[in-house]
Specification:
There is one protein chain. This protein has a single domain (2-126), classed as 5'-nuclease (Rossmann fold). It contains seven helices and four strands. The chain has helices spanning 7-14, 20-29, 38-52, 58-70, 78-91, 100-109, 118-126, and strands spanning 2-5, 32-36, 74-76, 112-114. It has a four-stranded parallel beta sheet with strand order 3-2-1-4, with helices on both faces. Helix 3 packs antiparallel against helix 4.
C-alpha cells in the first residue's frame, strides 16, 4: 500500500501526539510514503505557529521539521497534479483548494490518505479514496 501523508498527520507524529503511534504504524507498513510539495509549506507554517506561541523552542522546531519531512519517501511536484487538484476543488467548494492536492495525489497513485482532518477524510471518502 502507498500512503499520502498530509501535514496534520505528519505533525502529530513528529510531536508525538496522541495518535502518533497509530499513524506511524500505518506509515511503517506502507511500501511508499508520498506527499505533494505543499506538505513542506504546511509543516513550516504549523511549526512556526508553535514557536510563535511559545509551545516549541527553535531547536524543537528544527527537529520536528526534519523528522516530519523525513517521513516522506517521495515529494510530488505541484506541476504534476495541479489540474486534478483544481478539478477536485471545484467539486468540493467547502474545502480549501490546496487540500485537494493531497486528494489528487492519493487518487493518482491509488494510495490511502493519512490525515487527522475530519473534513478532508470525508471529502476523500466521497471521492472513493481510501483513508488510513
Amino acid at each position: 500500500m502507498r500512503a499520502v501523508l498530509d501535514a496534520s498527520a505528519a505533525i502529530e507524529i513528529a510531536l508525538d501526539g496522541k495518535a502518533a503511534r497509530q499513524l506511524f504504524e500505518v506509515l511503517d507498513g506502507a511500501e511508499e510514503v508520498i506527499a505533494p510539495e505543499l506538505l513542506i509549506a504546511e509543516l513550516v507554517n504549523t511549526v512556526w505557529k508553535y514557536q510563535q506561541f511559545g509551545q516549541l523552542d527553535l531547536a524543537q522546531c528544527d527537529l520536528a521539521l526534519a523528522f516530519a519531512v523525513g517521513l516522506v519517501d517521495r515529494l510530488v511536484s505541484h506541476a504534476e497534479i495541479y489540474r486534478e487538484a483544481f478539478a477536485m476543488s471545484r467539486a468540493h467548494r467547502s474545502r480549501a483548494a490546496y487540500d485537494m492536492f493531497y486528494l489528487a495525489l492519493a487518487r493518482r497513485e491509488d494510495a490511502a490518505l493519512l490525515t487527522l482532518d475530519a473534513a478532508l477524510k470525508k471529502a476523500a471518502l466521497r471521492e472513493g479514496i481510501r483513508v488510513a
